[in-house]
Amino acid sequence: MARVVIATKNEKKLRELKRYLKSIKAEVVSLNEIGHSPRIREDKHTFKGNAIKKAVTVSRVIDGIVLADDSGLEVDILGGLPGVKSARFAGGRKKDHDNTVKLLRMLEGVPARKRSARFICAIAIANNGKIIKIIEEYCKGRIADSIRGRHGFGYDPVFLIPKYKKTFGELGLKTKDKMSHRSKALKKAREFLRKHI
Q1: Can 98 be counted among the known catalytic residues?
Q2: Cα separation of 157 and 180, whole Å?
Q3: pLDDT tens-place string over residues 51-99
Q4: Residue 60's closest CA among 36, 80, 78?
Q5: For residues 7 and 32, what is the distance between their CA atoms, to the nearest angstrom?
Q6: How far apart are CA 56 and CA 143, in angstroms?
Q7: For the chain, which terminus, N or C, has the lower number of CB atoms within 10 Å?
Q8: With helix as H, strand as E and coil as C, how does 179-193 read?
């Protein structure tokens, strides 16, 4: 049976990726499950660059197809911050809540019309050290003025979808799956893997 290795140690992200890939005819495992996790410094300036680096690095040392993603939030008025530092915005050992609080503080006093933002997801798929597919998807929205809702993770409780006037944290998984950056990218990745495997 073919094997797809997801190159992440983030358990919340891993659950989301596995949920989308469960229908492909392959064993889907994480780096933690196979007990092999090369140290990768995510030092590229784009989500795409980091995804490619992770996929290529892992696929050089393990058997099977490797899927890596890098994703995060860009806020226009902040010049694209937090960007590739989304997960470490408040510091290396800080948590999602700390990142969100820092973002809200930086946007204090900024009117709603100037709080435009986008989630970005880049997925790279590699085999034997070579990239075989790259996917990038986006989801546009605005940053709310406070934390709203308990669903999702990361910046979901402050990422407002104007159409619904609710954040991803309030909308829940079912609605988020219809429009999120990661769900769009993973649907394309799933179709590619179905044909490739």
Answers
A1: no
A2: 13
A3: 999 999 999 988 889 999 999 999 999 999 999 999 899 987 778 899 9
A4: 36
A5: 9
A6: 34
A7: N
A8: CCHHHHHHHHHHHHH
